[in-house]
Protein backbone atom coordinates (compact mmCIF):
# COMPACT_ATOMS: atom_id res chain seq x y z
CA UNK A 1 0.00 0.00 0.00
CA UNK A 2 1.51 3.29 -1.03
CA UNK A 3 1.95 6.56 0.58
CA UNK A 4 -1.09 6.68 -1.26
CA UNK A 5 -3.78 5.44 1.00
CA UNK A 6 -6.42 8.09 1.22
CA UNK A 7 -8.06 7.39 4.52
CA UNK A 8 -11.09 9.14 5.77
CA UNK A 9 -9.32 11.18 8.35
CA UNK A 10 -7.03 12.61 5.74
CA UNK A 11 -9.99 13.41 3.55
CA UNK A 12 -11.59 15.14 6.50
CA UNK A 13 -8.47 16.93 7.50
CA UNK A 14 -7.59 17.64 3.92
CA UNK A 15 -4.04 16.57 4.37
CA UNK A 16 -1.56 13.90 3.47
CA UNK A 17 0.80 11.74 5.37
CA UNK A 18 4.37 11.79 6.50
CA UNK A 19 6.24 10.35 9.37
CA UNK A 20 5.02 12.00 12.45
CA UNK A 21 6.95 12.95 15.49
CA UNK A 22 4.41 12.55 18.26
CA UNK A 23 3.66 15.89 19.75
CA UNK A 24 3.60 15.97 23.52
CA UNK A 25 0.55 18.17 23.87
CA UNK A 26 -1.37 20.81 22.01
CA UNK A 27 0.51 23.43 23.96
CA UNK A 28 3.53 22.56 21.90
CA UNK A 29 1.65 24.16 19.06
CA UNK A 30 1.59 27.51 20.74
CA UNK A 31 3.79 30.08 19.13
CA UNK A 32 7.26 29.79 20.52
CA UNK A 33 10.02 32.36 20.32
CA UNK A 34 11.49 32.02 16.91
CA UNK A 35 15.15 31.39 16.42
CA UNK A 36 16.91 34.42 15.00
CA UNK A 37 17.54 32.45 11.87
CA UNK A 38 15.56 29.47 10.91
CA UNK A 39 12.31 27.82 11.70
CA UNK A 40 10.00 26.45 9.09
CA UNK A 41 8.95 29.89 8.00
CA UNK A 42 12.49 31.14 7.61
CA UNK A 43 13.40 28.00 5.72
CA UNK A 44 10.44 28.54 3.44
CA UNK A 45 11.32 32.16 2.87
CA UNK A 46 14.90 31.28 2.07
CA UNK A 47 14.03 28.56 -0.37
CA UNK A 48 11.25 30.50 -1.98
CA UNK A 49 12.60 33.95 -1.69
CA UNK A 50 16.33 33.61 -1.74
CA UNK A 51 18.06 34.23 1.59
CA UNK A 52 14.97 35.95 2.91
CA UNK A 53 15.08 38.81 0.43
CA UNK A 54 12.12 38.34 -1.80
CA UNK A 55 13.37 40.85 -4.29
CA UNK A 56 16.43 38.75 -4.99
CA UNK A 57 14.46 35.70 -6.05
CA UNK A 58 14.90 35.13 -9.76
CA UNK A 59 11.72 34.50 -11.70
CA UNK A 60 11.21 30.81 -12.33
CA UNK A 61 11.30 31.40 -16.04
CA UNK A 62 14.87 32.64 -15.82
CA UNK A 63 16.10 29.53 -14.10
CA UNK A 64 18.13 26.98 -15.98
CA UNK A 65 16.06 24.79 -18.26
CA UNK A 66 14.79 21.38 -17.33
CA UNK A 67 17.41 18.88 -16.37
CA UNK A 68 15.24 15.88 -16.92
CA UNK A 69 12.38 15.22 -19.26
CA UNK A 70 10.42 12.25 -20.28
CA UNK A 71 7.64 11.71 -22.71
CA UNK A 72 5.42 8.75 -21.99
CA UNK A 73 1.90 7.74 -22.85
CA UNK A 74 -0.47 9.64 -20.65
CA UNK A 75 -3.57 8.14 -19.14
CA UNK A 76 -6.80 8.56 -21.04
CA UNK A 77 -8.24 11.88 -20.11
CA UNK A 78 -11.26 13.97 -20.68
CA UNK A 79 -9.79 17.25 -19.50
CA UNK A 80 -9.37 20.25 -21.69
CA UNK A 81 -6.52 19.80 -24.16
CA UNK A 82 -5.40 23.30 -23.18
CA UNK A 83 -4.49 21.84 -19.81
CA UNK A 84 -3.07 18.51 -20.82
CA UNK A 85 0.22 17.97 -22.63
CA UNK A 86 -0.94 14.70 -24.16
CA UNK A 87 1.88 12.70 -22.63
CA UNK A 88 3.28 12.11 -19.19
CA UNK A 89 5.94 14.68 -18.53
CA UNK A 90 8.31 15.64 -15.81
CA UNK A 91 10.84 18.31 -15.19
CA UNK A 92 13.00 19.57 -12.39
CA UNK A 93 14.92 22.79 -12.05
CA UNK A 94 18.35 23.34 -10.72
CA UNK A 95 18.26 25.15 -7.47
CA UNK A 96 20.10 28.29 -6.73
CA UNK A 97 21.94 27.74 -3.59
CA UNK A 98 21.95 30.57 -1.18
CA UNK A 99 21.61 30.22 2.49
CA UNK A 100 22.31 32.39 5.44
CA UNK A 101 24.92 31.08 7.83
CA UNK A 102 23.63 29.21 10.82
CA UNK A 103 20.27 28.37 9.36
CA UNK A 104 20.72 24.79 8.39
CA UNK A 105 20.24 23.23 11.76
CA UNK A 106 17.33 25.37 12.90
CA UNK A 107 14.15 23.46 13.48
CA UNK A 108 10.64 24.70 13.00
CA UNK A 109 8.69 26.33 15.79
CA UNK A 110 5.86 24.01 14.73
CA UNK A 111 6.57 20.40 15.45
CA UNK A 112 4.47 19.14 12.59
CA UNK A 113 5.14 16.61 9.91
CA UNK A 114 2.35 17.69 7.60
CA UNK A 115 0.65 21.03 7.46
CA UNK A 116 -2.05 21.50 4.88
CA UNK A 117 -2.23 25.19 4.23
CA UNK A 118 -5.68 25.05 2.71
CA UNK A 119 -7.56 23.35 5.52
CA UNK A 120 -5.16 23.98 8.39
CA UNK A 121 -4.84 20.23 9.00
CA UNK A 122 -1.73 19.47 10.98
CA UNK A 123 -0.58 15.94 11.66
CA UNK A 124 -0.28 15.23 15.33
CA UNK A 125 1.00 11.71 15.87
CA UNK A 126 -1.88 9.50 14.84
CA UNK A 127 -4.35 12.30 14.35
CA UNK A 128 -4.82 15.60 12.68
CA UNK A 129 -5.70 18.83 14.39
CA UNK A 130 -6.96 21.90 12.67
CA UNK A 131 -4.38 24.58 13.20
CA UNK A 132 -6.61 27.40 12.04
CA UNK A 133 -9.41 26.35 14.36
CA UNK A 134 -7.04 25.72 17.24
CA UNK A 135 -5.41 29.12 17.08
CA UNK A 136 -8.36 31.16 15.90
CA UNK A 137 -7.30 34.80 15.73
CA UNK A 138 -3.92 33.94 17.18
CA UNK A 139 -2.96 32.25 13.93
CA UNK A 140 -1.57 35.61 12.95
CA UNK A 141 1.24 34.92 15.40
CA UNK A 142 2.07 31.83 13.37
CA UNK A 143 1.54 33.05 9.84
CA UNK A 144 1.39 36.52 8.45
CA UNK A 145 -0.28 37.91 5.37
CA UNK A 146 3.18 38.16 3.93
CA UNK A 147 3.69 34.42 4.23
CA UNK A 148 0.52 33.80 2.28
CA UNK A 149 1.47 36.41 -0.28
CA UNK A 150 4.75 34.58 -0.71
CA UNK A 151 2.86 31.33 -1.18
CA UNK A 152 0.70 32.93 -3.88
CA UNK A 153 3.70 34.33 -5.62
CA UNK A 154 5.52 30.99 -5.64
CA UNK A 155 2.36 29.14 -6.66
CA UNK A 156 1.88 31.48 -9.59
CA UNK A 157 5.45 31.13 -10.75
CA UNK A 158 5.35 27.37 -10.53
CA UNK A 159 2.03 27.32 -12.40
CA UNK A 160 3.51 29.45 -15.16
CA UNK A 161 6.63 27.36 -15.28
CA UNK A 162 4.63 24.14 -15.67
CA UNK A 163 2.48 25.71 -18.38
CA UNK A 164 5.53 26.97 -20.21
CA UNK A 165 7.49 23.73 -19.86
CA UNK A 166 4.61 21.52 -20.97
CA UNK A 167 3.20 23.86 -23.60
CA UNK A 168 -0.18 24.24 -21.99
CA UNK A 169 -2.30 27.15 -20.92
CA UNK A 170 -1.65 28.41 -17.42
CA UNK A 171 -5.20 29.73 -17.15
CA UNK A 172 -6.59 26.23 -17.64
CA UNK A 173 -4.79 24.97 -14.52
CA UNK A 174 -6.28 25.34 -11.06
CA UNK A 175 -4.61 24.99 -7.70
CA UNK A 176 -5.94 21.91 -5.96
CA UNK A 177 -5.77 20.42 -2.48
CA UNK A 178 -4.05 19.32 -0.43
CA UNK A 179 -1.28 21.88 -0.63
CA UNK A 180 1.07 21.18 2.22
CA UNK A 181 4.38 21.47 3.94
CA UNK A 182 5.98 18.18 4.85
CA UNK A 183 8.68 17.36 7.30
CA UNK A 184 10.27 13.96 7.15
CA UNK A 185 12.80 12.56 9.57
CA UNK A 186 13.86 9.09 10.58
CA UNK A 187 11.19 8.76 13.25
CA UNK A 188 9.14 5.61 12.94
CA UNK A 189 5.88 5.96 11.06
CA UNK A 190 2.89 6.39 13.38
CA UNK A 191 0.24 5.34 10.90
CA UNK A 192 0.18 3.65 7.52
CA UNK A 193 -0.24 6.98 5.77
CA UNK A 194 3.03 8.07 7.31
CA UNK A 195 4.71 5.43 5.18
CA UNK A 196 5.78 7.80 2.49
CA UNK A 197 8.38 5.48 1.01
CA UNK A 198 5.92 3.25 -0.85
CA UNK A 199 5.55 3.64 -4.60
CA UNK A 200 2.43 5.58 -5.46
CA UNK A 201 0.61 7.55 -8.10
CA UNK A 202 -0.44 11.02 -7.02
CA UNK A 203 -3.61 10.94 -9.08
CA UNK A 204 -4.68 7.89 -7.10
CA UNK A 205 -3.48 9.23 -3.76
CA UNK A 206 -4.93 12.68 -4.02
CA UNK A 207 -7.69 12.28 -6.59
CA UNK A 208 -7.71 15.72 -8.07
CA UNK A 209 -4.03 16.11 -8.95
CA UNK A 210 -3.15 16.46 -12.63
CA UNK A 211 0.18 18.18 -12.07
CA UNK A 212 2.26 17.72 -8.96
CA UNK A 213 4.97 20.15 -8.01
CA UNK A 214 7.41 19.86 -5.15
CA UNK A 215 9.48 22.72 -3.89
CA UNK A 216 12.28 21.43 -1.73
CA UNK A 217 13.32 23.40 1.32
CA UNK A 218 16.36 21.49 2.47
CA UNK A 219 19.37 19.80 0.95
CA UNK A 220 19.97 16.13 0.35
CA UNK A 221 23.23 14.97 1.95
CA UNK A 222 23.67 18.23 3.81
CA UNK A 223 20.50 18.50 5.89
CA UNK A 224 19.38 14.87 5.66
CA UNK A 225 20.43 11.48 4.34
CA UNK A 226 18.19 9.23 2.23
CA UNK A 227 15.00 11.01 1.21
CA UNK A 228 15.69 11.21 -2.50
CA UNK A 229 12.68 11.27 -4.78
CA UNK A 230 12.58 8.28 -7.13
CA UNK A 231 10.62 7.96 -10.39
CA UNK A 232 10.07 4.24 -10.80
CA UNK A 233 10.45 3.73 -14.50
CA UNK A 234 10.40 0.36 -16.15
CA UNK A 235 13.97 -0.83 -16.27
CA UNK A 236 15.56 2.18 -14.61
CA UNK A 237 14.71 4.44 -11.77
CA UNK A 238 15.41 8.13 -12.00
CA UNK A 239 16.26 9.99 -8.89
CA UNK A 240 15.91 13.61 -7.87
CA UNK A 241 18.03 14.93 -5.06
CA UNK A 242 16.16 17.55 -3.08
CA UNK A 243 17.96 20.84 -2.77
CA UNK A 244 16.58 23.96 -1.12
CA UNK A 245 14.97 25.91 -3.93
CA UNK A 246 14.74 23.04 -6.40
CA UNK A 247 11.32 22.60 -7.96
CA UNK A 248 10.31 19.28 -9.45
CA UNK A 249 7.06 18.88 -11.34
CA UNK A 250 5.38 16.16 -13.30
CA UNK A 251 2.06 14.88 -14.54
CA UNK A 252 0.36 13.08 -11.69
CA UNK A 253 -0.76 9.89 -13.46
CA UNK A 254 0.52 6.33 -13.63
CA UNK A 255 3.25 7.45 -16.04
CA UNK A 256 4.98 8.98 -13.03
CA UNK A 257 4.92 6.27 -10.40
CA UNK A 258 7.27 7.38 -7.65
CA UNK A 259 8.36 7.06 -4.08
CA UNK A 260 10.58 8.82 -1.58
CA UNK A 261 13.52 6.98 -0.07
CA UNK A 262 13.48 6.61 3.69
CA UNK A 263 15.17 9.45 5.47
CA UNK A 264 18.03 8.01 7.52
CA UNK A 265 19.19 11.08 9.36
CA UNK A 266 18.38 14.76 9.58
CA UNK A 267 15.17 16.45 8.51
CA UNK A 268 13.76 16.92 5.05
CA UNK A 269 11.35 19.75 4.29
CA UNK A 270 9.26 20.26 1.18
CA UNK A 271 6.08 21.89 0.04
CA UNK A 272 3.65 20.28 -2.37
CA UNK A 273 1.70 22.56 -4.70
CA UNK A 274 -0.50 20.80 -7.21
CA UNK A 275 -2.88 21.63 -10.00
CA UNK A 276 -5.96 20.19 -11.59
CA UNK A 277 -7.43 20.67 -15.03
CA UNK A 278 -10.92 20.37 -13.60
CA UNK A 279 -12.24 23.71 -12.37
CA UNK A 280 -14.61 21.84 -10.04
CA UNK A 281 -11.60 20.54 -8.13
CA UNK A 282 -9.87 23.90 -7.99
CA UNK A 283 -9.32 25.82 -4.76
CA UNK A 284 -8.38 29.39 -4.04
CA UNK A 285 -4.98 30.21 -2.65
CA UNK A 286 -4.78 29.58 1.08
CA UNK A 287 -5.71 32.66 3.07
CA UNK A 288 -5.41 33.67 6.68
CA UNK A 289 -8.76 32.88 8.27
O1 LIG B 1 8.30 15.06 -1.00
C1 LIG B 1 8.51 14.48 -2.07
O2 LIG B 1 9.58 14.50 -2.67
C2 LIG B 1 7.40 13.69 -2.71
C3 LIG B 1 6.22 13.53 -1.88
C4 LIG B 1 5.16 12.76 -2.57
O3 LIG B 1 5.41 11.89 -3.34
C5 LIG B 1 3.77 13.10 -2.31
O4 LIG B 1 3.49 13.99 -1.52
O5 LIG B 1 2.89 12.48 -2.91
FE1 LIG C 1 3.68 11.61 -4.53
From TrEMBL:
Protein name: 2-oxoglutarate and iron dependent oxygenase domain containing 3
Region of interest: Disordered: 1-41
SMART domains, sorted: P4Hc
Highest taxon of source: Eukaryota
Any coiled-coil regions, as ranges: none
Required cofactor(s): L-ascorbate
Keyword Metal-binding: yes
Native species: Gallus gallus
InterPro entries: OGFOD3 (IPR039210), Oxoglu/Fe-dep_dioxygenase_dom (IPR005123), Pro_4_hyd_alph (IPR006620), Pro_4_hyd_alph_FE2OG_OXY (IPR044862)
